[in-house]
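Weekly puzzle thread! Below is a chain. First person to post its structure in token form gets bragging rights.
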Amino acid sequence: MKVVVTGAAGFIGSFTAERLARRGDAVVGIDNLNDYYDVTLKKDRLRRLERLPGFGFEKVDIVDRDAWQDVVDRHRPERIVHLAAQAGVRHSIENPHAYIDANVTGFLNILESTRQSPLEHLVYASTSAVYGANTRMPFKTTDNVDHPLSIYAATKKSNELMAHAYSHLYGVPTTGLRFFTVYGPWGRPDMALFVFTRKILAGEPIEVFNHGRHRRDFTYIDDIVEGIVRVLDRPPSADPSWRGDRPDPSASDAPYRLYNIGNNEPVELLRYIEVIERQLGRRAEKKLLPLQPGDVPDTFSDVEPLSLDFDYRPSTSIEDGIARFIDWYRDYYPRRTYHG
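Winning reply:
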């Protein structure tokens, strides 16, 4: 297939593009290489990809409607994996406009291009953050998600609504994947595993929010990519059993689906830190703090629909996943940068 992957210099995007290119797909990677975090890390991810046959990269901002449409017109992709976004719950509180631009306007540009150039399947990233104030566990895609706790979550919920509108109006097959706390080698420097590892190695205290008592469904990057690829290969069709008097939010009488994609095994943050300490052979100095604005206390994914439809099962334990990240971190960063 010819596949466009947006956010190809990002964490999930780079692994997804690599997996598709290695299996023989023609992959066009798109990214604007913004400086939300270290651009060097993004460029190094791209260097790994550019060695692969069948992969090509273009620096394009999806917010630029004409530039994005030009990509679609020239490449005529059969499928799109849309992973470009402004990420980060806390950052969205300080910079809400960046999230509307990238996550809403950018997504609208992608949807409009699919209407003008017919597409076999659009797979896009949503987030566990859409569950917001929900407390019934595990989180199910059939749950109501009308109470987001951050503008980031609100923009991702809007993506799901916008995708449904285009699936209904124009028959565009769309699948949204709600990711649950993705981690692993080449991850984002603002994520907990990255921050904790750097500070513990530097002998600095780590900030532990909610006194370490909240739980997260930490999901290893390989398990995420496996789910993305399985979903990409099977575009949704209209669900003939869907009923408007009992609407299921995860399906439709249009070619539209939503799935959770997570480890299905929440871990308390203090336990996660213990595994990091054991892998590093060092104890962390912890600064215990209250829950931060926009954060949710717990996440727990129900992945049964994904398992039933795609035979998907996450398989990486946090012990193995954290060990692989730390091996990568020690190799990628020279010791002199531990205090950076």
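Puzzle host: Confirmed. Bonus trivia for everyone else. The longest strand covers residues 121-127.
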